């Protein structure tokens, strides 16, 4: 328990440091650019002003960290989200310094800022997942393991073994090929004597699975046998032994079933798909983020108006017209925003958050079992209505 807390605390501290470091660097570069331009009437952008502009990115980062609280390899992505405002402004001022004031060092600073923030995001994963100890194995945290010669990583999650991408290192966490413990028949570390080809089925473009193949060079490899899928994953001897111990510890006592979860229950209304529906293991409903952001606008306005009054910030009070306090009209507006925020929060939960959870439940099944859910039989009943169609 203590080790898991310390790992997460170290990762969060690094993310916060990266965000603060990039913001401080951006303010210093802004001040330097003003000095080079000999501006006396323009004050350089302060740290508080930049932080206020970065709030939206930090909120997204916090939501992402909560969503991926157990998927520690994804923390590198949210570290980059937290650092983006500072990196963007730092690059902007560096380009001004290099281009407008003929200081080539500006280009080096811009590149260095990107490299440092990128390295810190990678360090977040290292401190949270290495070394692989018994306490980490017994936890529910995701543990990534490198493969030998593949673009994919081997990730051991709470309930499944995953190859997180077969296409690109930039798409990790997508194109997932998974074997849950309920479908895991056996796993062992074997020696491959000659080069072989392994083929897996991935749904990416239609309701007929597309085979993906990768080469398995001679050497140690994990032989994974599931109820509907078999894989040979090249690894080093040390990585294979540690991954094997992790999988066996986490899958111990789980009963193997012959059928996917879909076949144990009737399909829900939102799962009734037309015959030409495309099942994609690399699909994510990102449009829900835009809808959710729109629905959260009243809450954002209410929050910023409240912060402008509580903090007494002149900039915020000027932006939100609260410098002279709140008259009756503004009080009515705030009360109305509160009511609208509650209604919009419900809509965001009902049509964005819950819809995303339902979607990902289906994705987990598709990723784990290389067969599309069977379409319901044609009974003449309109789904969800309980009424028969009228015959014409």
Map the helices and strands.
Elements: H1 2-36, H2 47-53, H3 55-67, H4 75-100, H5 105-129, H6 134-137, E1 143-146, E2 153-156, E3 160-163, E4 177-180, E5 184-192, E6 196-202, E7 210-216, E8 219-226, E9 230-234, H7 237-251, H8 287-295, H9 297-311, H10 314-319, H11 328-368
Antiparallel strand pairs: 1-2, 2-3, 3-4, 5-8, 6-7, 8-9
Helix pairs in contact: 1-4, 1-5, 3-4, 4-5, 8-11, 9-11
Q: Would you kindly provide a written description of the structure presented here, covering whatever features stand out?
A:
The protein has 392 residues and is an alpha+beta fold. Helices cover 50% and strands 13% of the residues. The chain has helices at residues 2-36, 47-53, 55-67, 75-100, 105-129, 134-137, 237-251, 287-295, 297-311, 314-319, 328-368, and strands at residues 143-146, 153-156, 160-163, 177-180, 184-192, 196-202, 210-216, 219-226, 230-234. It has a four-stranded antiparallel β-sheet. The chain has a three-stranded antiparallel β-sheet with strand order 5-8-9, with helices on one face. It has a two-stranded antiparallel ribbon with strand order 6-7. A hairpin with a 7-residue loop joins strand 6 (196-202) and strand 7 (210-216). The chain is globular and about 75 Å long. It starts with a helix and ends in a 24-residue tail after the last helix. Residues 380-389 have low confidence and may be disordered.
């Amino acid at each position: 328990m203590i080790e898991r807390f310390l790992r997460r605390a170290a990762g969060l501290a690094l993310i916060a440091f990266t965000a603060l470091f990039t913001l401080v660097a951006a303010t210093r570069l802004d001040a330097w650019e003003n000095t080079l331009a000999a501006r006396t009437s323009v004050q350089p952008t302060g740290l508080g002003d930049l932080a206020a502009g970065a709030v939206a990115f930090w909120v997204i980062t916090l939501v992402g960290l909560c969503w991926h609280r157990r998927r520690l390899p994804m923390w590198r992505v949210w570290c980059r989200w937290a650092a983006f405002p500072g990196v963007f402004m730092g690059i902007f001022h560096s380009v001004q310094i290099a281009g407008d004031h003929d200081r080539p060092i500006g280009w080096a600073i811009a590149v260095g800022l990107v490299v440092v923030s990128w390295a810190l995001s990678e360090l977040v994963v290292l401190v949270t997942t290495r070394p692989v100890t018994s306490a980490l194995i017994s936890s529910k945290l995701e543990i990534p393991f490198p493969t030998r010669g593949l673009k994919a990583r081997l990730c051991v999650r709470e309930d499944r073994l995953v190859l997180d991408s077969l296409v690109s290192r930039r798409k990790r966490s997508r194109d997932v090929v998974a074997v849950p413990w309920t479908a895991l028949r056996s796993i062992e570390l074997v020696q491959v004597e000659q080069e072989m080809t392994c083929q897996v089925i991935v749904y990416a473009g239609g309701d007929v699975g597309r085979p993906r193949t990768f080469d398995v060079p001679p050497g140690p490899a994990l032989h994974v046998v599931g109820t509907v899928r078999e894989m040979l994953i090249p690894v080093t001897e040390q990585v294979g032994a540690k991954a094997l111990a992790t999988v066996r510890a986490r899958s111990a006592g789980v009963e193997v079933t012959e059928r996917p979860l879909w076949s144990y229950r009737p399909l829900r209304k939102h799962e009734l798909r037309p015959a030409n529906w495309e099942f994609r293991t690399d699909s994510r409903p990102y449009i829900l983020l835009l809808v959710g952001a729109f629905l959260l606008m009243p809450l954002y306005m209410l929050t910023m108006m409240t912060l402008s009054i509580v903090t007494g910030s002149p900039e915020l009070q000027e932006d939100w017209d609260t410098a002279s306090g709140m008259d009756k009209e503004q009080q009515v507006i705030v009360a109305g925003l509160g009511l609208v925020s509650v209604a919009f929060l419900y809509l965001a939960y009902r049509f964005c958050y819950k819809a995303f959870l339902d979607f990902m439940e289906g994705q987990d099944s598709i990723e784990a079992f290389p067969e599309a859910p069977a379409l319901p039989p044609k009974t003449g009943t309109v789904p969800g209505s309980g009424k028969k169609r009228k015959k014409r």
